[in-house]
Amino acid sequence: MFRRDRQQLGRKLRRTVLLLSLALPLIAHHSTALYDLVHGTIIVGDVKRFDWENPHAHIYLDVMGEDAEVEHWVVELQSPILLTHLGWKKDTIKAGDQISVTGGRAKDNSFQIRAIYVVLPDGRKLSALPSVDN
Question: Which CATH number fits domain 32-127: 1.10.10.200, 2.40.50.140, 3.40.50.970, 2.60.40.2470?
Fold first, then answer.
């Protein structure tokens, strides 16, 4: 009897751990609440890296600040699947490209921005949010 109860408890524990591990990404996922999407910010800089990854793609951008110091910005984008529907590809942006990003800066004034539009080196303007018209 004791052995069977222990086995059932072990199965329940394993199921609980599995369910919690599946739910963790949903809990960790954040919204755009960290960003000021009302007052737009425009930055222009050189791409250091473009990460095409879930849950959000990111562009790492070096921007010349007002004090002539280089600022290392992180540009947050939508997920790759949503970006694909907006005309993006994983090679849309390459290291060394100079781009312009319009979006909402982080409310804590760190060098982070949630992109709304990105202007590519060839002049194309790509939407970075599905609800924004091109």
Answer: 2.40.50.140
3-state secondary structure of 15: helix
Long-range CB contacts (within 8 A, 24+) of 70-73: 71/45, 71/111, 72/48, 72/111, 73/43, 73/45, 73/101, 73/111, 73/112, 73/113
Give the pLDDT confidence of 49-85 residue by residue, as tens digits. 999 999 999 999 999 999 999 999 999 999 999 999 9
Q: Which two three-digit tokens encode residue 103? A: 């979006």
